[in-house]
Amino acid sequence: MKQQTFIKSVMVTSVALVLSACGGGGGGGGSDREVSSGGSLSMDDGGYSTRKASLNTQQDFEGTTSAYQSSEEALDLVTEVEDVINSGGLEEIVHDGATAQALDDSVDLACENENGSVKVTDKSVSSVIDVRYDFSNCRLTTVSFGQVALNGSYTYKESGSSSSGSESWTGSETFNISGSFVASGTPFALKGGDRWSETFDAAAEQGTLTLSSDVLEFKKGTSYVALQNSLITLGIDGNQLALSTEFRLISSAMNGYVDYTTPSPMVIDLFQESTCPVQGINRMEGDGVVEVRYGVDTGTGADIVVEVNNNTVASYETCDESGINMFPGAL
């Protein structure tokens, strides 16, 4: 079972906070460097990675939110599939002789359809988690997506230790899955992976979590979205969270790509009654530039200022006034 560590839970909520508030994200640990176009893409049939997306109006800026959320849909699907497998409701396929010996650390489970199967290879020991799922014409029913047909593989690895309120973990995921949503017949594919590392000292109330990925691609029907060269860093120090993100978001819905950086990291005071960041700048650059400034970085006394091509298009004295849901998830 995957570790549900404190700082990773904080990370998930904090990233959702910034991405929802800013139409997609920021970047760079205070760096103003350009996001590079590394990480090899294999499903960009429309050439979206070769052109900048329009980013010249507030509507363009707001449109990036749905593009980012579509990339999250793929990871939600994998999580629900894994939940079905781990629920214990799938029957084991019994093999005899040489086939049984060849499976070694693996077990074959029957899926919901005839001749569909998923091989689960679990090499986990002690504080090391190492699990691989190999799907072969496998149909499973998920809570949010209905029945899906799956081929390909998913691997999750994690190792580390924790004691007396302190912990240190590293992990990675690799995706190479194709399939379809059975009810609609819509095909999908997910390729790529991510890595993360974390340290947390409860006594000192300090910790750091870093999540990175060279490339993560998701194709659903004719829609395509990818994250390239992503780096998300969360630091917690007492009552303050500091969040920096950078990545390139590529999307068919945007007809191009947008680069996200954070000239000034997002800082959130957990003891402050307001959930608005006390400082931070998110910069989004495509064919045009959007900056969302928070707290002291607005330079105006407002909580939030939105600028498009250096022109202020929105200013909010409070986060409540902006209508932005600063905490879409819950700790």
TrEMBL record:
Signal peptide, first to last residue: 1-23
UniProt entry keywords in alphabetical sequence: Signal
Keyword Signal assigned: yes
Feature: compositional bias, Low complexity: 36-49
Region (Disordered): 24-49
Source taxon at top rank: Bacteria
Keyword Signal attached: yes
Protein name per the record: Lipoprotein
